[in-house]
């Protein structure tokens, strides 16, 4: 036990004192915040440009329909020919010219209107112009049908079906997706941690092999102790790094927002959000439903979620990092690891993508259930399902327990196998192992 | 109990390959024991079994009369053939870590390390990083770490590879002092001439089998074949050679005549040299006359040859 502590301490110190580790730890938050600020800044610049559009309106329609906004302003030309208007537009440096010809019929006028511009016009400008025409045409058609504007407004009513579970708990649309995103964030964190720090464990094993210190050490401690100490020490270093990242990034972000007054609303923070979720949230806001969503978010069982995050995180990380340690022991240098790395990354990727697609559409569908039970994907997929709660309306208790029991069983089996490969592999030099060879090692 | 280590019928297989085949050894206390044999003979496997890095398939190893247990690890010091240090760690810190892994307390380890660092005149390396050291320098650190916890049994696998002659001698002296202090020592090497002079006992390992073991002086006695190396001062060497061949009825193809000096090897039917010496003394001035004792290498080659003939 005492020796294990010594190993953990050494691995931790070796990792956190490493120059590139220190640089990464302190540079990453600056880079991330810098990126966010840059994106926000660029988005702001992009929006700041005001386009001036000339209008030559020879018809009797549209006299009050083109209203200037922050992004677009309109200048009306009067009593000049089209050619003169074009010249003026170019001379004044306007963005473009809208020509509305003279005619008694609105449809003909609309059909014969033209937008002239120096370069291919921006779609948002065109959308804006088209909206004006569409609204005007629609109004006229309604008048022709004898429907008054007021009547029309009264039938323009969006409808949303209200949903509830059988126990009477009311659901909000889009909430499933929101919960999956929260769970997904936890799952994604686990995946990133495994890939980054599992890799560290592997490289550390390879370093011990290439520096030939391994045999000196295992004449004092058991190979299993060394492997375990390495995994735990590296994960402590990882937790330290993550903590520094989260704390310093949020401090930096806060400072930047506070001092430079940059509107982060310009950054779309949830690019993965499906369109209907975004619109639902929008309409919820306008309907004053936001309060309900906040209530729902508070109602998410955070304590339970974080507890299970820790459980799945520890088990998942131990499984994967012991595989990484075994790979490191089996090879002589990092270039030989490729063939073994891919099969590890595969279930992780699968978990993230399948998780996002299936859990989003149906958190309790067969695929979601299967992947949240399968031990190599369950740490990620189960966490995506868990924000829905346990039991009624959430993950059935038996599934949760089965998944954890399977995970623990797999953990013990994998660590046992990995320790065997590790024990043999660390003393093998100059051989590029094949899978066949590894299986042979298991029988030594 | 006068044996520090006893191996009984130790067998180890890796898949289809047998690394050790029923090897039995007895290593007396307070002696230097040479484990000799070519690369791949199974020496390192045997040493790893003694260090409990691997375990025998069958057979038993006794340490100080008792079956090997994890607690014995701290009583053994092992300098592996494949040895190295963490490159980016500082020398002192690393030595301290390795000493603590052997079970020494931090304070005790530090005191002993200071003593050894001063003894080998490397006190100013404490805060250097290992990657700044030369190979020979790193070997000194490894040597210190191996002996620091004052083990009862020291195992050196190819100890002198990587040392320049001066440092090799320093280390050799340290090892002899440790032996004087009561430590038992195993040398493992394929370069037999390098440790022959140090060893009192040897075992020869060849293709996973022990083919010979015992006290080196006894073995040499058993293997000497009455060959003598003679140097004479004479002007007519050729005549003398022919007379010798006739008189003693022997073949003598290896002789050199140079500047009135005749050198040759001669094998006698028995260890009785009186007749030959009397004869030679009557014919010429004798410069030297000595028995050629076979080297461990000669013995090894001869044993392997005999073994192959037997099979």
Automatic annotation (TrEMBL), chain A:
Query: Where is it located?
Result: Cell membrane
Question: Which SUPFAM superfamilies does UniProt cross-reference here?
Answer: Periplasmic binding protein-like II
Q: Which superkingdom, per the lineage?
A: Bacteria
Annotated Gene Ontology cellular components are: plasma membrane
Tell me which Gene3D superfamilies the record gives: Periplasmic binding protein-like II
**Membrane-spanning parts:** 21-43, 180-201, 242-260, 300-320, 340-360, 367-386, 398-419
> Chief subcellular site?
membrane
* Membrane-related topology note: Multi-pass membrane protein
Please verify whether the record's keywords include DNA-binding. Answer: no
Annotated ranges, domain ABC-2 type transporter transmembrane: 19-419
The record ties this protein, via Pfam families, to: ABC2_membrane_3
List the InterPro entries: ABC-2_transporter_component, ABC2_TM
Q: What is this protein called?
A: ABC-2 type transport system permease protein
The lineage, from the top, is:
Bacteria, Pseudomonadati, Bacteroidota, Flavobacteriia, Flavobacteriales
Automatic annotation (TrEMBL), chain B:
Q: Please verify whether the record's keywords include Nucleotide-binding.
A: yes
Spell out the family assignment given in the record's similarity comment.
Belongs to the ABC transporter superfamily.
Residue ranges occupied by any ABC transporter domain in the UniProt entry: 5-232
The Gene Ontology terms for molecular function here are:
ATP binding; ATP hydrolysis activity
> Under what name is this protein listed?
ABC-2 type transport system ATP-binding protein
Q: Which UniProt keywords apply?
A: ATP-binding, Nodulation, Nucleotide-binding, Transport
SUPFAM superfamilies in the record, alphabetically? P-loop containing nucleoside triphosphate hydrolases
Q: Which Pfam families does this chain map to?
A: ABC_tran, DrrA1-3_C
